[in-house]
Amino acid sequence: MGTGRARVAASILDADFSNLGAAIRRCEKAGADRIHLDVMDGHFVPNLTFGATTIKSLRRVTRLPLDAHLMISEPGRFIHEFIDAGCDSITFHVEVEEPVVPTLRAIREAGRAAGLSLRPATPLSALEPYAPLLDIVMVMTVEPGFGGQEFMKDVAREKLLPARDLLKHKPVGGEVHVDGGINRETAEYTGAQGVDVLVVGSALWIKGHDMGREIRLIKALADEGFQYGLNAGVPPIPRDQWVSFARLPKAYAKRFTDEIEAGGIPVLMLRGNGQINPDGIRDYEVMVPASAEALTADRHADTRERYLAAAEAWRESQRQPGS
């Protein structure tokens, strides 16, 4: 994983289809954060690629998350095949002529991230009825179907930043993706629009180019765009950075963890280096993502003080007289 904010999903649409396993291993070695799988049925879009059977085979060659983008007419009919194939996230198009809600629910019930994508001409408002079920909003900045198209800056300007409002129900973990024409020339602009994941395709497969360098450049430029376009010159908080929010005895740490997680903020409870309690067990660190530290404090600072006071009272009650 990278140390910045931006993430790159490497699309294999322009890779050598005769050896996709090697292409994915190359992406992984080059520093891609996930693999983007463009599934096309020759009907919803004019191109034809691969399906769930191929993805199931590719699942065995990498530990990276598999991010499926279904450009197919009947995603609901095939969704369980893609779930069973090992996709970690599945995004399909809001323009399909079938009910959208059952497919989103099936994805989420399987424990995978669910997303909706929209063509350049489709207004962002088309996603509003489904917002509570979304983990991902994917904005297409080219017409779906073929790689190597020119980036549509006007679409990015109109949709990317407002797309964040559709994910207000997910204080941590909701992602805005941009797909189409992403390279070192467009990464900074999209980063300044608050994008979380940049889907990069043809720019990674140019003969003679160093894929790892392209990925590093695109991430760095996107982070720079975010820093100066949205964050008042302050570098973005790395997505992989966690901080300790409280240090508590195990039972108190577990209860506090449950309370924080109930609000949609992920928590890690780790054995800390703090004091050893009367039960012989060290305090646990209640860890939250650094990017959510301020939100956690807004919601739980008073509760933290109560837990700390209760923990100290418990310690005193357990101490032997004269100890």
Structure description:
The protein has 323 residues and is an alpha/beta fold. It has two domains: 223 residues, TIM Barrel (Alpha-Beta Barrel); 77 residues. 34% of the residues lie in helices and 21% in strands. The chain contains nine helices and eleven strands. Helix 1 packs across helix 7, helix 3 packs parallel to helix 4 and helix 8 runs antiparallel to helix 9.
Number of helices: 9
Structural class: alpha/beta
Task: Please identify, by name, the CATH architecture of the largest domain.
Answer: Alpha-Beta Barrel
| Strand residues, percent | 15-25%
Tell me, rounded to a whole number, the average pLDDT.
94
Alpha carbon gyration radius: 22 Å
Could you name the CATH class of the largest domain? Alpha Beta
Q: Which range best describes the helical content: under 10%, 10-25%, 25-40%, 40-55%, 55-70% or over 70%?
A: 25-40%
Topology pattern, helix = H, strand = E: EHEHEHEHEEHEHEHEHEEH
- Total strand count, please? 11
CATH topology of the largest domain: TIM Barrel
Task: Characterize the biggest β-sheet.
Answer: 8 strands, parallel, barrel
Strand order of the largest sheet: 1-2-3-4-5-6-7-8
Q: Going by CATH, what is the homologous superfamily of the largest domain? A: Aldolase class I
Q: Low-confidence runs (pLDDT<50, min 5 residues)?
A: none
